[in-house]
């Protein structure tokens, strides 16, 4: 039972951190629009370098591989005092907020299209990243903080659930989101 309580507590804290960092991303985009536009361009280049112009199954594999790499990093590097999972969650929240604010404020896409571009797969992807991050923190707590193997086993279950959710999210992002949002 202790592992479950720890997991829920970590998930809640990480979710709050994600929302706050997303809000900060929006705030930066509003207060510093030129800086935000430059960051947006760099983020776009990074994403294009990972996914490219692939469509269909190729896009699905690229998206899943990229997101699973992020989740695995959050999980495995959680051993370092639980810091890396927090960094991953906060950076991803900030990027999401900044990108949404930039594309909407510059008129690249409408607010409705922006939401349709994020929500279908985001309802799986964001919780999956939060689960992987919570799992990473549990690895640290179960091993270095010596809170027990029950906590480590719980972390493995969370990570496995994260991997499955990311698979669903990648499928939706590659095959459904472009049609729903009209962006592909």
From TrEMBL:
Keyword tags: Membrane, Transmembrane, Transmembrane helix
Record-annotated membrane-spanning stretches: 12-32, 70-91, 98-120, 126-144, 156-176
Domain of life: Archaea
Pfam families, A to Z: SpoIIM (PF01944)
InterPro entries per the UniProt record, alphabetical: SpoIIM-like
PANTHER family linked to this entry: SLR1478 PROTEIN
Protein name: Conserved membrane protein
Source organism per UniProt: Thermococcus gammatolerans (strain DSM 15229 / JCM 11827 / EJ3)
Lineage, broadest ranks: Archaea, Methanobacteriati, Methanobacteriota, Thermococci, Thermococcales
């Amino acid at each position: 039972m202790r592992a479950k309580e720890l997991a829920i507590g970590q998930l809640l804290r990480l979710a709050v951190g994600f929302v706050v960092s997303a809000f900060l991303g929006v705030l930066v985009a509003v207060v510093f629009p030129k800086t935000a536009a430059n960051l947006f361009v760099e983020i776009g280049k990074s994403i294009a370098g990972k996914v490219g112009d692939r469509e269909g199954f190729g896009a699905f594999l690229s998206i899943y591989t990229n997101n699973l790499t992020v989740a695995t990093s959050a999980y495995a590097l959680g051993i370092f005092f639980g810091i890396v999972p927090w960094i991953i969650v906060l950076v991803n929240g900030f990027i999401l907020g900044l990108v949404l604010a930039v594309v909407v404020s510059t008129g690249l896409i409408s607010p409705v299209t922006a939401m349709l571009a994020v929500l279908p797969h985001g309802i799986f992807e964001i919780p999956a990243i939060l689960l992987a991050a919570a799992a990473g923190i549990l690895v640290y707590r179960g091993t270095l903080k010596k809170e027990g193997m029950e906590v480590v086993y719980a972390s493995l279950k969370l990570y496995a659930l994260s991997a499955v959710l990311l698979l669903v999210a990648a499928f939706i992002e590659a095959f459904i989101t472009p049609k729903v949002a009209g962006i592909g």
